[in-house]
Amino acid sequence: GLDLLEMTNVGKKILEFQSQNCAFIFVSDQSPSNVSKAHWVKFFGIETAFIHGVDQFARTLDLPVFYLDIQRIKRGYYEVTISELVMNPTEKNPGEITQIFATKVEEVIRKYPANWLWSHKRWKHKRENN
Questions:
Q1: Residue in 31, 112, 59 with CA at minimum distance from that of residue 41
Q2: SS3 at position 98
Q3: Is the pTM of this model over 0.90?
Q4: pLDDT values of the chain reduced to their tens digit, one per residue, 130 residues
Q5: CB-based contacts of 90-97 (< 8 A; 24+ apart in sequence)
Q6: What is the DSSP letter of 20?
Q7: Is 55:49 a contact under the CB 8 Å cutoff?
């Protein structure tokens, strides 16, 4: 019952399954491909581009947002922690959910720095002054 989707197909799939008991899991650690649509938030004190999709879908469709943290305990053993990020997304402004997410990611990285892939090139985009 698990479908992996490209971001271009996510909106249709969410609308299709919205009334059913299901979860939508976004892998949101990537740098956005379309920087013009990015949400710019503080991440480790640096203005950083983040993918806007989760924020937009959550607010538009009133879907709560949770953070799924998977930490390696030892070889072959992992611990999964699910924490609530936003239960009332329609009360948030555009970009607020993204900032809450970025703050949570930063908190987890500070706690377990060896488990984060520092090769992600998180700061490869610079915001253009408008």
A1: 31
A2: helix
A3: no
A4: 777 777 777 777 777 877 777 777 777 666 777 788 888 889 999 888 888 888 988 998 898 999 999 888 899 999 999 999 999 999 999 999 999 999 999 999 899 888 777 656 677 777 776 5
A5: 90/59, 90/62, 92/55, 92/58, 92/59, 94/39, 94/52, 94/55, 94/56, 94/59, 95/39, 95/40, 95/41, 95/52, 95/55, 96/55, 97/54, 97/55, 97/58, 97/59, 97/65
A6: S
A7: no
Going by their DSSP bridges, the two strands 65-74 and 46-50 should be labelled as unpaired
- CB atoms under 10 Å from CB of 67, counted, come to 17
Q: Tokens 């503080």 label which residue?
A: 42
